Amino acid sequence: MLSLVPVSLKEANAFVAAHHRHHKPVTGHKFSIGCAAEGRLVGVAIVGRPVSRYLDNGLTLEVTRRNSALDCR
Questions:
Q1: Rg of the chain over CA atoms, in angstroms?
Q2: Whole-angstrom Cα distance, residue 5 to residue 64?
Q3: Which one, of 16, 24, 62, 8, lies nearest residue 42 by Cα?
Q4: What local confidence, expressed as pLDDT, does residue 64 receive?
Q5: Residue 70: how many CA atoms within 13 Å on its side-chain side?
Q6: What phi and psi values does residue 18 have, to the nearest 5 degrees?
Q7: How does pLDDT run across 47-60, given as a tens digit for each residue?
Q8: Model confidence over 24-45: pLDDT tens digits?
Q9: Per-residue confidence at 22, pLDDT binned at 50, 70, 90?
Q10: Angle at Cα 73 formed by Cα 34 and Cα 45, nearest 5°?
Q11: 64 close to 49: Cβ distance less than 8 angstroms
Q12: Where are the extended beta strands (E) located within the chain?
């Protein structure tokens, strides 16, 4: 069963670095959230302000990184 778990930016960046080959770490975020299966982290999402200044209206958020482990069975 999958469950949502809180993760820090440091934990989320470490997960992305371990499971993705070319994304650099995110320097800031609004929040990060993880997905766990049987107590093991199998996915993360890092959410922050939009990159485009035209979309940065104070109400809009953007998923800056999303990653899941390939072996999450």
A1: 13
A2: 18
A3: 16
A4: 92
A5: 4
A6: -75, -25
A7: 999 989 999 999 99
A8: 888 889 999 999 998 899 999 9
A9: confident
A10: 20
A11: no
A12: 2-6, 31-37, 40-48, 62-68
